[in-house]
Amino acid sequence: MQTWAKRGLQTAFVTGGLLMLGTGIASAQENVDPDAAPPAVDVAASVPLKADQNKLATPVKELTVPKVDRTISTDRVTSAVPTRTATPVANPLIRQAGERLQGTALQNLVRGNTVQAHVDVPINICGNSIAVLANGEAAGECTQETHRDGTIVTDGAGQALAGNVVAVNHILPIQITGNAIAAGGNSATNTNASQVSTTGGDITTNGDQGAISGNVVAEQGATPVQITGNAVGAAGIAEANSVADTFASSEGDVATSGKNSSISGNAVPIPLAPLFEVNGNSAAGAGNAATDSVQTGTAYAGGKTDTNGDPATLAGNVVAPALAGPITVDDNAAAAGGNAAAISDTSNWSDAGGHIHTDGRGSTASGNVAGVPISLPVAAGGNGASVVGNALTDHANEATSNAGGDVYTLGDKSVLSGNIADVPPASAVDVCGNGATLAGQATGTCDNDVDSETGGYQGTTGNDSVLSGNLAQTPLAAPAEVYGLAAAAGGQAYGSADETKDVRSSGQPNTQDDNGTVSSNVVTAPTAVAAQVFAVTAGLVGNTTSDTSNDTSVTAGEAPKAYGKKSSASGNIVQVPTSTPAQVFADGATLVGNNKTAGDNATDMKAGGDALTTGEQGSIAGNVISAPVATGTQVLGWSVGGGSNVDSVATNDLDSVAGGDVNSNGDKGSVSGNLIAAQPAALPAVPGNTVSAAGITTSDVVTDTNVVSGGDSYSKADDASVSGNLIHVPATVVAGVYADAIAAAGNATTATDKVSNTEAGGDMFTEGSGPLSAREMTVPVEAVANLRRIPVEVLGQAITTGTSDDSQLTGEDTGTLRASQLKGLELPKGVDGLLKANEIPAFHGIDSIKGIDQLPVNTLPNPADLAAMAGQLPTPALPGVAQERSALPINGGTAGITPNVQGLPLGQVLDAAQGLLPALPAERSLPAVPSLPVTAPALPVQLPALPTERSLPALPLDGPASLSGLNLNPTQGLAPAAGERSLPQLPVAAPAMTLIDPAHLFETVTGSL
């Protein structure tokens, strides 16, 4: 059997390697000249294999599997005698052919173009034990190291079809160590293993002043696979104690250039760095299995990318996909009629790609960047499941995943250049710390710390350009998780998780433009979403318990900036940020049994940020369309039981914010600096409900939520046209079914303390001058519907307690009033600048009113004329007018004033005028007029009353209206009602109202639905 195993391994690897990869056989001792020119084609693959200290136990005997240490490759085939792993080199046949071309007329055929494909699969098999109807034990100290250099240096400058590179540098190490398998026997391992595998290198070329030159397509992959520290017991006992570490890298920067070229200097780096792991798992079938493991993994791929397309055509562009993230199935326990336990500690790091820099100035379709960095850590760990058995886990996981990096480009004085398109999803998928059993016992415990990030700062320019320097991005930050759950049917289950998570997608988009056309615009749609289910328990004739905490931060995108000064259709921003948590936690439901769950949640979510732009002296520039959406969807603290005892305890702190403040400028612009915004914020609140049927259920919830959509808006537009306008539609919807209790032949109790803040939009401020500029319009929408603290009792007891402190803000808190609060006609703000201090408006066409020409205007009344108007004046009196202007001109004294002029409270006037010097009228008094006769006849009619609130004056007068020095200005001294805007003080001699520009009739239009 020993001979069969030895020959089988040799045959499989040798035959498989030759069939898949096969060309060329070279001596292991072959020398390589480091100064030789790189070959035009270099294709090589290798499988360095190392197997040692593995045991196989049978009823006959315990065998030590033969040691193997060799490399099978297209580079060389080593002898059958195990040797030290040799470093792979380039295929000698291809290399020799390339060398023979040097110094010949044929060497110019390749022109520095290079094709390189290196794939290496190091395999380390060590310290494994397999026992079949016998006892076996393995102990191993294992290391493996491999390296292949993939550095490329070539040049295609000043040539056509030269210096292009196609490269694949991929390392795929496989580590299979420290596993124990027992079938009808006992198997044990104790292993410490390490594997280090590297490949790649910098790629440097040049396509300056060339045509289709200096382009690079490079796959850089580091994808390690770990299968370590697992134990499987089938009618036997398996124990695995393992320490395993894997390091893999395919790193290298890409540098090229396409200056003064055509279709040159373009780069497509493809860094891939996912890890694949199956470690520390325990499975028992009618037996026992136990693991105690520590595993670490690291994968690095790619690096910086630097190129140039200044000035050029179709040059210096970059397309950069990237993938990072450990994908692990670690430290789970499963038992069927047996016992399984898994205790472990896992730590992984994955990094793919890096910063990107290019330049498209003075070019056409150059210096553009398209990025698709993906960060996707996936983990299933610390879960316990049993069927008529016992399963126990205690798992700690730490994962860091980064894909992509900052992006910088320039598109000045160009056409279709310096643009950026970015699709950078970041996620984290976890199934962790769950326990599930069927007629058994299961415990899942997990401590999970994950950091997942994609992309970074996005910066470009489009000065003096056309269709350049634009930026479009769709950041997505979306963890999706199930952890700390417990489910039991006829058994007992426990789930516990302590979760810390930070998921971030992309960075700030920033673009600048002066004197551009359709340039430096930003379109961004950042999305933050958290689909999380944790601390949820369910039982059917069973007992379940969960104790779980969550601390999650989710960030998608950042504050966009754009500049479009002196430009056309430039510097505009369109943003649609959404923040939408979807969380279900601390809920329990049991039918016959006992259930306890406790969940502590702290979640901070942010999509987008403040938007800043300018369109000064521009046309269709510096405008913002903003549509942020924020919600706070959560189902927490529910307790539902039938014939059972169910307790639910939840604490919750949620911040969900979309968008932010918006600031724009349209000075001296046309259709610039405008803001159009729809800002919905919704809070569907359903915490702390409890239902009991022939049982006892309790719910204890403390929740604090903050949901904010949008923010304040600022704009200005001096000397502009159709600019600096603000249009808002803020909307808040708050609906809740919470703190309710239903009891049917049982007891249901809920205590819910709820605090919430829901905001949409904010203050609006604009200023400026010009046709249809600096206007505001807001249409706020609010809806509230709550069904709360309602006890429902059917032969039971239902108790609801708690507090609520809820705030709801839609649009401006103070300032612009809604249409339902406005009364009458609001005069335009510009009136103040058109009238003098001693003028009031005159009304076009008012002279057609019968008898209006007989009113005293700028002269003393003629009693005979007033007598003819008896019965025509519409109102009886002017109460209180004298109180506004009590300082009367006293020319000639007061003795001649008769106190019984009808309708005038002259007694009060006389008292106020005593003691004043005749020649010193009070400040701002009207010009002096001769004193009234000693005995003036009574007015035949009553003077009109003051106009109604906020209405225009009933007496349209063309000049100063006075009667014996009494001010008859119908609006002087009127105070606005509470909550109303103040009307401008009407002066007392106005130009005709026909001079008022109808375009300024309304400065503010508001309304509500």
TrEMBL record:
Pfam family, one: ChpA-C
Signal peptide stretch: 1-28
Record key words, sorted: Amyloid, Cell adhesion, Cell wall, Secreted, Signal
Biased composition (Polar residues): 505-516
Superkingdom of the organism of origin: Bacteria
GO biological process terms on file: cell adhesion
Keyword rRNA-binding: no
Region (Disordered): 442-467, 496-520, 542-566
InterPro entries: ChpA-H
Domain (Chaplin): residue spans on this chain: 110-139
Stretches assigned to coiled coil: none
Biased composition (Low complexity): 542-553
Name recorded for this polypeptide: DUF320 domain-containing protein
